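Hi W., the pyridoxal-5'-phosphate complex you wanted:
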Amino acid sequence: MPGEKTFHMTPDEFRRHGHAVVDWIADYYARIETFPVLSRAEPGRIRASLPAAPPGKGESFPTILADIERLIVPGITHWQSPNFYAFFPSNASGPAILGDLLSSGLGVQGMLWATSPACTELETHVLDWLVHMLALPQKFLSTSSGGGVIQDTASSASLCALLAARERATNFASNLRGCDGKLVAYTSSQAHSSIEKAVQIAGVGRDNLRLIEVDQNFAMRPEALTRQIEQDHRANLVPCFVCATVGTTSSNGIDPVPQIGRICREHKLWLHVDAAMSGTAALCPEFRNIHAGLDFADSYCFNPHKWMFTNFDCDCFYVADRKALIQTLSVLPEYLRNKATETGAVIDYRDWQIPLGRRFRSLKLWFVIRHYGVEGLQHHIRGHVELAQKFAEWVNKDERFELAAPAPLNLVCFRHKAGDEINQSLMDRLNRSGDLYLTHTRLNDRLTLRLCVGQTNTTARHIEKAWKRIQEEAAKFKMSA
Ligand code: PLP
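Structure:
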């Protein structure tokens, strides 16, 4: 009604404030290297700076935006800084940010094909593109027995894989009656903690997760896997699921998927391959050997939200047999019934994931792929691997340091030879300086520093500076070993 009171932002205000936000983001990227990479906020400081009570009356948008700078930025660890080398990257890019903005603007729920056909069909299409781009097995195509879906995270993908494995192993009886404590899952001692969480959630139970030992390269020992499966069979347990990792979080270890796959086939176990960060490397033909043996896999996932310039959240999850997944996760209440679903001619992605609702995440992925093209993506992934390899060479040549694990791609695990205390102190000083951000792990029970190259804008200049800073800090220690 004309003249009716409204508190909404008008379209003109939205346009104006939207431009200001985009300007702010562009400026943020332009000055990102001026911030300490790791936030210096003390615990509770950000919260203490916020008003105790919500505003009674709405505030002006410029005031709100100014508070981003004043109150929020001091509590930001700058994941998009080119000097960020911690954990695994969670990189972003212009096209992904804009795709995400459009997804918010459209604000659709893509739980059913019918609730926004484009949301489903673009996702199916882009995930099929990625099968070709990464040279994944054809069975993961939507036009074959399988297909891909975007999950929020690799954790959710692994959980869905385990649930489908559980149902396949029990002929869908555990969905009806729950688990009986007999199912067993396997992964290596180096696998991501999300597998442990998945067995807890799926009702398999943590006692029924076997952490298989690894070799000197931190890759699962297939003979140890066989031994454990046979032992569990003898104990009248029901082995059902193996998760192999391509690029472990600690050290980028690559499990021998071909051997593991043969074991899974022989014992009829579901094989899930978690390539959360490293899968992106397969964009480049020269790195596709990391996916050897994927033909044996029942499911596979990798995260464009780690290394493929696509803002969190975006995990691509593929299954070889979509029927098993759908039968595991499908529940159809009356209020979701619709003609399109009943024809069986459409995909309803709600049946491929845990939640019902889903965002239009394929938009940002589509934008990224179209903006960079395969060539652009390969160029930057190759560049990151080259930078990491160069860094590994420098480490190798400096007698104070050693490599702690093979560096097949973009992660370098290294340590000062003088022991844990020195490494801890080195890392703390570097991180406190704000010049770069590194994190650690333990390999062979020794504190190990990790430098992972994967932020969108990291170049040779940044890696050179990182190595220079590491050397400067190391020079402050007397060699004690
Ligand atoms: N798997 C591996 C090998 C990882 O390195 C990680 C995170 O670093 C995950 C799974 C979990 O990723 P997400 O945050 O997408 O669940």
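The radius of gyration is 24 Å.

W.
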